[in-house]
Amino acid sequence: MLRSYRFTFSLANWGVIDFLWLSIYILAVLAFTEPVSYPTVVPLLFWAVIAWSFMSSPVWMIGNWMRFYVNEGIMESHEVSNVSHTLFLSLRFIPSLLMALASAIAASTVLVVVTGVNPLRVENPLLLGLALATLLAQATMYALILAYTSLYIGTPAPALDILTFMMFVAGGVGVPVSSLPEPLRALALILPYSHPSEVMRYAVVGLEPYLGLRAELALSLAYAALLYTLLKVIESKALRKARIVGVKGIGWT
Amino acid sequence: MIAGLVKAELLLRYWWFKNNKSFLAVSLLWPYVMVVTVLALGLAYGSLEVYKARLGVVDPLVYLFSASAVAFTTVNVIDYTVSVATWHRWIGTLQYVSLAPVRLGVYVVVSGLASSLLSAGITWASVAPAIAILSGPEGLARFAILALAVVAGMIPLVAIGCIAAMATLALKEEGNVIGFLMPLLLLLSGVFYPVEVLPWVLRLMSNLTPSYYVVEASKIVNALNVEAGFKVYLVIYALALLAVLYNLLGFYFAVWAESRVKSRGVIE
């Protein structure tokens, strides 16, 4: 709380930046659509962009922060105090989530003014919450995997992150799986984020999930479990290496 | 002295890019990422024909590449100018820079402008092959004309960047708290959509935004005809007017902010 108070201007700036980027993307895509299709397109598009915010923020907040965590000596002090690095790093999703929610509300206001459609009016809010929570959990674990991989091989996490953008555009997050061309559709089904995104679209406008609601829900949770297992393996390898060579001996490139 | 500053800044950026090749690769890919995202989502929820009609452009693909390149490189000048001040504060050299013979405001402007021009060169080198493939040598020639619009757009924007940089120093926070300016200017520029869709207050603000005129120039060059020639003059006059207005404002604000920062001390 004290840190948040100290950085009031920075936090407000961050929220405004998020809101502005959301608005730019949404207005850009709306320029491709006829106003008659706004009632369906606006909510779908709005929540797709929110999903992007949920999947990309942890990569920046956790993955990108790993180098700072090491360089500033925070990791060493946590190491000797027996603080869990994973718990500490993963809690960084809280401010990013709050900012994403605040900017989403602001962007929805702009959408109501511009299109007359309220994107916050959804068919199943509970299911939407579950879909977004699963997406956020998957994204946080993916960001932690990136952070530990970057620690293990000494390369900054953003340079390793080649999947987030691809998953949004071609992996069934920004665009429904059924609308993707055939080779991309198969790829989207292999990737984790497409499943909670299909559930999200069902919750927002009732768009039938590609593999059915139950299968998509089950796959969303199964992928979360798989990512957690992978995280534990990489965490153990990265920390073992850091303890042998020393945290500052990683040698970032 | 200013030529020396420009040379030093260009050399600094050159070596920085040389030592950070992954960042250079990201810079080269960034325009494609933006265009592909907008196109993929746009085509999933609508059509290119609607987009063409809404924006009044002849070739929407060429427009998307050229407009996003010119808008981003123009607006980047603000980000680079503001980050000069925060960067020196972070690395602990702000006090030395503020004691140098050149005024702090002048240094911030020169540094931001030099970095922006180098960054613009990289973005343009990245986008040029796509434009050459999509519309041939003629399209490439039109794109080259836009370079003038970008430089003209940078002149008033660098003044806004200088005001923002000095304000960042005055606000005392560690981060770039004026970072929202860049996406705000992009929102007001109407790079990917017509500004007519914005609420009236934002439309009014668009008319005071230099990058809006640079994007308008992209649309005019995309649909180059006799009527367009007259519109180009209007864009140039608007940019010249804004350049005078913002630079006057920027000069007085920079002088005031520098004396305030120095009287309070740059290290807190």
Compose a concise summary of this entry.
The complex is a heterodimer of chains A (253) and B (268). Chain A is mostly helical.
Content of β-strand of chain A: under 5%
What percentage of the residues of chain B does DSSP assign to strands (E)? under 5%
Largest sheet of chain B: none
Distance N to C terminus of chain A: 34 Å
Count of distinct strands of chain B: 0
Name the overall outline of chain A.
Answer: globular
Count of helix runs of chain A: 13
- The helix content of chain A, as a percent range, equals over 70%
Radius of gyration of chain B: 19 Å
Verbal overview:
The complex is a heterodimer of chains A (253) and B (268). Chain A has 13 helices and no strands. By secondary structure, chain A is mainly alpha-helical. The radius of gyration of chain A is 19 Å and the shape is globular. Chain B is mainly alpha-helical and 268 residues long. Chain B has one domain. In chain B, helix 4 (60-91) runs antiparallel to helix 9 (210-222). The radius of gyration of chain B is 19 Å and the shape is globular. The chains are: A mainly alpha (253), B mainly alpha (268). Chains A and B meet through helix 2, helix 3, helix 7 and helix 10 of A and helix 2, helix 3 and helix 7 of B.
